[in-house]
Amino acid sequence: MVPGEVHAIVGENGAGKSTLMKILYGMLRPDEGTITVDGTVHEFKTPTDAIDVGIGMVHQHFMLADNFTVLENVVLGAEPRKGLSLDLAEGRRRIREISDTYGLDVDPDELVEDLGVGARQRVEILKVLYRGARILILDEPTAVLVPSEVTELFENLAELKQEGVTILFISHKLDEVLTVADSITVIRGGTTVTTVSPSEVTAQDLAELMVGSDLPTPETRESTVTDRVVLSTKGLEVRAVAGRPLISDVSFDIHAGEILGIAGVEGNGQTELIEAIIGVQELDEGHIELDGVDVTSWPTRRRREEGVGYIPQDRHRHGLLLDAPLWENVALGHQTVAPFTKGPWVDRKGARERTQEVVAAYDVRTPGIEVPAHALSGGNQQKLIVGREMEADAKVLIAAHPTRGVDVGAQAAIWDQLRAARSAGLATLLVSADLEELIGLSDRLLVIYRGRIVAELQPDEVTPEELGSYMTGARSAQEVQ
Amino acid sequence: MARRILLAVAAPVLAMAIALGVSSLVLIASDNSPLEIYRSMWSFGTQLNSIISMINRAVPYYLAGLAVAIGFKMNLFNIGVEGQYYFAALIAAIVGAAFTLPSVLHVLAILIIAMASGAFLAGIAGVLKATRGVNEVISTIMLNNIVLGGFGAWLLTRARYDDGSGSLQIATKPIAESGRIPNLNGWLEAIGIDVPAGARLTGFLLVAIVVGVIYYLIIWRSRFGFDLRASGMNPWAARSSGVDAKGMVVKAMLLSGGMAGLVGLSSVLVENGRFAGDFQTGIGFTGIAVALVGRNHPVGVALGALLWGFMERSAQRLDLEGVPKEIVVIMQGTIVLSVVVAYEVVRRARAAQQQREVSAQVDDERVADTSVGVPA
């Protein structure tokens, strides 16, 4: 990489992008090979070593303390001192200086919790620049942004570039990579396939280099929507401890054979909505009906037994027992129903047989069903979760980001399975940050903004840009229809 | 399979080696010959009456270890086993002496009373955690202090029974013969083992074995155990899967406390027939060490308990060698520390190995996939 270059790394999941980044940032040590910065070979033992030579990392998930100001977040761990006391004035001055130099538009005295996602990302970038980084590693920076914010981010990157900052941009969104990068390195199976210039290739070429196959599209064909309502929510409201509503007046019906998409910038109430339907989040107002029966007072277990399937947004946190073997993971969430149980006992044989079926039918790449879940790659873990929910004969499926972090091949397979289940009569609530996925799969789209449903849209009439403007609150519901 | 067993055994063996190393250093520093001392401990510890003594010591350690292990299985740290078993043994001794029943029934009734008492005390901590979010470490320590620091002594004096022997020992009324568990010397004789004079193998061994089997079935084979282990491994995933998190905390604490309730009964029902002022304390804390060493597995905990019993028994020999027997405490401490470290090292090695195996497998398939379309 040369100074002032935006260099993109693309590759499917498990290709080694994260490993490469961890090595560059000193979180992992390479078995072989060297890293040269400005002509000197460096060996990073810890991230501190990497920071010392000017490498900074902007993580995909923000690492900011919400109740601190921007200033406090930025200086945390690198506090300017005057004698023994904290020199906040100096910190403020330097943040303003950096913000002005790179056009980041960050106010040091604002509270982080008041900032939007895009602004938080700029704070993250400022944080590493403050520590003297001249080489920025951005890990899937656009994953959490809506289209307009992506554009802003790219403008910021251009300014950084002009000031001579070198940027390593990790992504699997090929069109973005083509827009922003000066050169693109494709990796597959842990090795470099090639480095190309964006002017020479198309997204199609890149995809083929990444996986050796065509780009899948998530389009559903003819409608299978019936008029039988399976899941119905009426006036759902969840309030935070302080009384501020996290979701408010959320009402919708999902019919058998329908995929209802929920679009929204993350943190606008999707999590609360999903958890309320699953039953782990208590409702302050409203009712939930499953097949015409009021299930509002049912505990999670009963809802799941009666056919609520769940693909959680964070598979490690909510979907898997990482240290348990695959067959126990397939039983998870269905441990009280056949074939996973026999009276008060776990039916180990039944659970193992079902797991074999899931592994075979959903192409989970594993040497066996006794290996613990943490040994599988992210994509295979996701396939296992999708398989377990699909095989469980659910009436309703709550699918939150079903293809997040999985490679193109697995993504296509999961889309196919969602479509197949839909034609078999499954009612699906699809929550996703991937607008193409939402538009392509959904029969109907609801936009959630600050905990309220602000628009209902037809996926075949809406563009990602339009959808994005509803999601950021730039357009309101009144303009619809 | 062989590899898995090897990995499972690697950690405790490694820990033992480190512990022996450290103890040897201490012995050398205090001008003793480690080899000599170990040989002497070993030859004393493997005599028949030492083995019986080892088992007798191990039985309460085992039960305490299992009680702690139930908590560990769902990331609850029940430090209160100490107070729970003391409380339960005292209540069981007092109530058990107040009535008689046909023999087996009487014993069962006392076991149930003890388990209920232990469960009651642990349940307080469980309910506090589930309803008020009180950390169970804090609440069980406080309950320990309440029981050991005052309530127990008060209750014991209230229940003091004067047997007319003029003994200064404060003790409860003896439990009727029907409520006692005999020793197993008869069984040993029956299989041709000549029991040395004064040695008695505790009949509570049978209870411990049954409890070990029940523990295994509940934790590893039952639906309840699945929920419990799931809550321990990943509370959020367990909740999404339908586990009632708060209810689970209470149930796990009740179960752990119930198990703890049995710890002191070997002393009450087999050895003494009553609860006396010299009742052995500290077993609850030993249980924590034993559960750690045994990795919460019923067989592992049994081995840990036997190891502790062996070390304490053979330590008695050290006085004769002119070595302070506290050296054994150093060994025990080192074992616990090195076991925790060694398990973590082995766990990581294993995780890395499994990941390699899986990716090797996946790569092979991928090569096989692509080789179809790509001419060599």
β-sheet strand percentage of chain A: 15-25%
Return the average pLDDT of chain B rounded to an integer.
89
Show unreliable segments of chain A. none
* Gyration radius of chain B, in Å: 24 Å
Beta-strand residue fraction of chain B: under 5%
Q: What strand order characterises the main sheet of chain A?
A: 4-7-8-1-9-10
Give the helix tally of chain A. 17
Question: What key attributes describe this structure?
Answer:
heterodimer, A: 481 residues, alpha/beta, Rossmann fold, 6-stranded mixed sheet, 22 strands, 22% strand, globular, B: 376 residues, mainly alpha, 15 helices, 0% strand
Overview of this structure, please?
The complex is a heterodimer of chains A (481) and B (376). In chain A, 34% of the residues lie in helices and 22% in strands. Chain A has 481 residues and is of the alpha/beta class. Chain A has two domains: 206 residues, Rossmann fold (3-Layer(aba) Sandwich), CATH 3.40.50; 251 residues, P-loop containing nucleotide triphosphate hydrolases (Rossmann fold, 3-Layer(aba) Sandwich). Chain A has a six-stranded mixed β-sheet, with helices on both faces. In chain A, strand 9 and strand 10 form a beta hairpin. In chain A, helix 13 crosses helix 14 and helix 14 runs parallel beside helix 15. Chain B has 15 helices and no strands. The chains are: A alpha/beta (481), B mainly alpha (376). At the A-B interface, helix 10, helix 11 and strand 18 of A face helix 9, helix 10 and helix 15 of B.
